[in-house]
Design brief:
11 helices; 7-stranded parallel beta sheet; UDP-galactose 4-epimerase, domain 1; 319 residues
Length: 319
């Protein structure tokens, strides 16, 4: 089987690539990204099964040519501006990029006349600000995007519906909740905490800079996320939307306390209001009952194990 991973150089892309190649199925992988991945987490024999194309999905002609030649069996679209903070700084660029690259991909598949199965990766941000009485969120919960990034993700989901119904494109959509795990960049909150805690342990900082620690989020390990994505490509129902989450909520203050206890530190915190969003939901927790029912998905990673792995990752990076 031939996979095309867009955004292969990113956090989720690298983990999905690692998972696909570890299955021993003989699958070959095409990847496209604006930056060349290091692949330093793979052995040389596995690297031979990867073909990388450097370029932007905004280049419509390049995307069409790639799809026409490669004719992949599966596409997982991970290419996006994934930072909510960035979307607040430049909403127009975020919206145009995230919707147009997806449209270019769909058009390339349609014009090539192939029935490639596509996984459209969305976000729990699509649910927006929710009341506690409406928790846990299911796929039937109303959408109420509260930031520019979320609006673009809702648009992507609506585009998917149009192509599935109008052109018969075999699409499956996700609403993916907060990912955590080793190799995540420190622009994301839990990875930032893990890095700062380890810097404190190694006597390289005296304070942990944070935003609002009272919000509750559903964190799921990226290694569980990529297994869920692959199960959806294999067993998910065409035209359906699936939450990819843990079904468990944790306050950011709780996450930080867990990291400090595991590291054996007690570093004071300092709130930076610049890290707080203009609009933010106090609690987001999802249900993955539909994902479990249709694919048999089960969680393999605990929050405690994920945090330990993140601390170890940052320990190695800092040293």
């Amino acid at each position: 089987m031939k996979y095309l991973i867009t955004g292969i150089s990113g956090f989720v892309g690298g983990h999905y690539l690692e998972y696909i190649l570890s299955k021993g199925s003989g699958a070959c992988v095409l990847g496209i990204d604006t930056e060349r991945p290091k692949f330093d987490f793979l052995n040389s024999s596995k690297c031979k099964r990867i073909k990388f194309h450097k370029g932007s999905l905004m280049d419509k002609a390049r995307v069409k040519n790639l799809i026409k030649k490669a004719r992949p069996d599966f596409i997982i679209n991970l290419a996006s501006y994934s930072s909510v903070a960035r979307s607040w700084r430049d909403p127009a660029e975020c919206f145009v990029n995230n919707t147009n690259i997806f449209l270019n991909l769909l058009e390339a598949v349609r014009e090539a006349g192939i029935k490639t199965k596509i996984l459209s990766v969305g976000s729990s941000e699509e649910y927006g600000v929710v009341d506690r009485e409406n928790i846990p969120l299911t796929e039937k919960s109303p959408l109420n995007p509260a930031n520019p990034y979320a609006v673009a993700r809702v648009a992507q989901e609506e585009i998917s519906k149009v192509y599935a119904a109008g052109y018969g494109t075999p699409l499956i959509c996700t609403r993916s909740f907060n990912h955590i795990g080793p190799r995540q960049r420190d622009i994301f909150v839990v990875s930032s905490f893990a890095k700062q805690v380890m810097e404190g342990k190694l006597k390289r900082r005296r304070k942990i800079i944070c935003g609002n620690l009272e919000i509750v989020r559903d964190f799921i390990d990226v290694r569980d996320v990529v297994r869920a994505y692959d199960l959806l490509l294999q067993k998910g129902k065409i035209g359906q939307i699936y939450n990819v989450c843990s079904g468990q909520g944790h306050k950011l203050s709780e996450i930080l306390d867990m990291l400090q206890k595991k590291a054996g530190t007690d570093i004071p915190t300092e709130v930076n209001r610049d890290l707080m969003r203009p609009v933010d939901s106090p609690v987001i927790i999802g249900s993955y009952a539909k994902l479990r029912k249709d694919t048999g998905f089960k969680l393999k990673h605990t929050i405690a194990g994920s945090l330990c792995d993140m601390l170890e990752y940052w320990k190695a990076q800092i040293r």
